[in-house]
Specification:
It is built from six helices and four strands, in the order αββββααααα. The chain starts with a helix and ends in a 5-residue tail after the last helix. 53% of the residues lie in helices and 5% in strands. A hairpin with a 6-residue loop joins β1 and β2 (32-33). The radius of gyration is 32 Å and the shape is elongated. It is mainly alpha-helical. The protein has two domains: 3-56, no CATH class; 67-193, no CATH class. It has helices at residues 3-10, 52-56, 67-86, 107-128, 135-157, 167-193; strands at residues 24-25, 32-33, 39-41, 44-46. The strands form two sheets. It has a two-stranded antiparallel ribbon with strand order 1-2. Strands 3-4 form a two-stranded antiparallel sheet. α3 packs antiparallel against α6 (167-193).
């Protein structure tokens, strides 16, 4: 027996192209495949006949917080901002004690408290709206969240004379950032869900 005949007899051949050596078998049907017939798909080796089904399968979408969840997160953040206004904003002097932000002497603290209360009221009004376009509310909530955060940072940088910053403004910064971020996410998702008008 010639050498060429022995090597071709021992080697497996492609079912579609009998003159070509097989490089593997189809994971779908088990047929032998040559290099031109073998298609790698998501870690599997498939032939042309078995391709449509795996290609039609879509990977699971990335999980993310639903739109209602971001709305609730906004409300919780403004609730936390209101709680921050009830905490002491300074260790001693003006702004110490319960409801330290509501004293008009530390102006930045009072601004943060007013923005937190307004944000909570706007969020409640948004919940009472039966439907329709809520993007205006989301823009207002994002702006109010940013105002709470900025006013709290300014209250940290400029505390009243002869006093030190306490826990209230730090909680206000976190709550304002969370409220602004959640409102912007809600706004972006509402815009993405809006149908395109031609």
């Amino acid at each position: 027996m010639p050498v060429d005949e022995r090597t071709t007899k021992g080697a497996e051949r492609c079912d579609q192209h009998p003159t070509r050596p097989a490089v593997g078998t189809c994971d779908g049907c088990g047929r032998s495949l040559c290099l031109s017939c073998a298609v790698p798909v998501r870690g599997r080796l498939l032939g042309a006949e078995c391709l449509p089904e795996p290609l039609a399968e879509r990977p699971a979408p990335r999980r993310r917080l639903p739109l209602a969840g971001t709305n609730l997160l906004t409300g919780a953040a403004f609730g936390l901002a209101l709680l921050a206004t009830a905490l002491p904003w300074t260790r001693f002097g003006v702004g110490s004690g319960i409801f330290g932000a509501w004293r008009t002497s530390p102006a930045w603290a009072f601004l943060a408290a007013t923005a937190a209360l307004t944000g909570a009221a706007v969020w409640v009004a948004r919940q009472m709206l039966p439907g329709g376009d809520r993007r205006t509310f989301d823009v207002a909530l994002a702006a109010l969240g940013a105002l709470v955060a900025v006013a709290s940072v300014l209250a940290i940088w400029h505390p009243p004379a002869f006093s030190r910053v306490w826990i209230g403004p730090w909680v206000g910064v976190v709550a304002g950032i969370c409220a602004g971020w959640a409102s912007l996410v809600s706004l972006r998702r509402a815009r993405a869900a809006q149908p395109v008008r031609v």
